[in-house]
Amino acid sequence: MPSIAENLETVQERIERTLQRCGRTGGDVTLVAVTKTHPVEVIDEALSLGIKHIGENKVQEALRKIPMLSNPYEGFHFIGHLQSNKINNLLRLKPVLIHSVDSLHIARELNKSLGRKNLTQDILVQVNTTAEASKSGVDLNNAEEMIWQISALPCLRVRGLMTIGLMSLEAGKTRPYFVSLRNLAEKIAGQNLPGVEMRYLSMGMSDDFEVALEEGSNLLRLGSVLFGKRNYGGAD
Ligand SMILES: *Cc1c(COP(=O)(O)O)cnc(C)c1O
Questions:
Q1: What is the pLDDT of residue 170?
Q2: Which of 221, 224, 229, 232 to mutate to test the pocket of ligand 1 (most atoms within 8 A of CB)?
Q3: Is the CB of 221 within 6 Å of ligand 1?
Q4: pLDDT of 236 over the 70 cut
């Protein structure tokens, strides 16, 4: 089995090659290593190899693991569905970015908690571009209005959009969904809403990150391509 170091090198090469192919200059893509289900030692190893951003999708798991890390990291990203009763615990971990604000309800709850603590928080709005019922995210048709409403919440700063593509073995099939996220971001950017800046497009996972880069992603969330397949049974 290849090591994390080897995987990381391969991934970085693939990112570079893709950026070159589509005429994008390097350096503007942030790689978030998705460390869910992996133990603290694995995360520390990734950090020692130069990974700077880590992502988790469950508050309880993050709360258990993040404080135990030995190596420093630049940013902790929350990428999972957020429930209101987990907000305060999440905020304790000082996420650099919450990728997964998927309803006005959770946005308002977050804003309330942040207000009590005198904090502001960078967030992305998660859009369910594929319209699959199994997936979180605001519907594409409702996203714009939700962002208008979030823009009135003083403690939240919308910094872009996130989507999960189609779970397909053919990466190309997910391209239209990435395109629709980018189009939405461009539309919203043109509206100059207060507190809203379309800086990040968080799209691209292990199976489709090259297509995502071709369609303008600058925030990749990669798990299995770095750490191997996840074992949901007996991790940590
Ligand atoms: C697990 C997860 C990822 C990483 O998935 P891989 O296919 O292993 O790269 C990315 N984004 C979200 C929201 C996830 O839950």
A1: 76
A2: 221
A3: yes
A4: no
